[in-house]
């Protein structure tokens, strides 16, 4: 048996299986390789405009309702990049319409001065990992649903603080990061506001 960690090996050995090797977790090896590649995106640099940026990745409607409330009421000079889990046109438009700050979609970026906007909604897939490299803070969505949060290893590899919803305990890396205070779990609007 090849297992990811010592506790799995110990569990197998406790029931008589001794032909066990700890091989590690390939998800960790993959995210470490992210740091070795070019993560630059010119349009994100233009949008960010040297301002503090919060990246919201793989968000679901429950995450977005809390985050949009924060975005709409904050007076901080902060930029927000939202990469929703679902990029259906109607849901993207509904999200955009709920935000009172100046908002632009990734699909509208051509011939647009992105530095004039406060919120960028990424209505495409495949670039979230690179976008995390521009964040000062990341919010990883899914923590208000089941089974829980999406991949927190991608933002964690860039060494930025991470915020998640309450459903994270099915993911060992999330439990470890929360325990080490590299990730904070929130349950309510007040907790999100105070944490941010």
What descriptive keywords fit this protein?
single chain, 9 helices, elongated, 196 residues
For the CA atoms, what is the radius of gyration?
19 Å
Instruction: Please report the number of helical segments.
Output: 9
Strand line-up across the major sheet: 5-6-4-3-7-8-9
Broad shape: elongated
**Mean pLDDT across all residues, rounded?**
96
Separation of the first and last Cα atoms: 43 Å
H and E order: EHEHHEHEHEEHEHEHEH
Number of strands: 9
Could you say which structural class the secondary elements and strand pairing correspond to?
Answer: alpha/beta
Q: What amount of the residues lies in strands?
A: 15-25%
- Main sheet makeup: 7 strands, parallel
Low-confidence stretches: none
Helix content: 25-40%
Verbal overview:
It is a single chain. The protein is α/β, with parallel strands linked by helices and 196 residues long. It contains 9 helices and 9 strands. The protein has helices at residues 6-14, 26-34, 42-48, 61-73, 89-98, 128-132, 153-156, 172-179, 189-195; strands spanning 2-3, 21-22, 52-59, 78-84, 103-105, 119-121, 137-140, 162-164, 183-185. It has a 7-stranded parallel beta sheet. A two-stranded parallel sheet has the order 1-2. β7 (137-140), α7 and β8 form a beta-alpha-beta unit. The longest helix is centred in the middle third of the chain and has 13 residues, at 61-73.
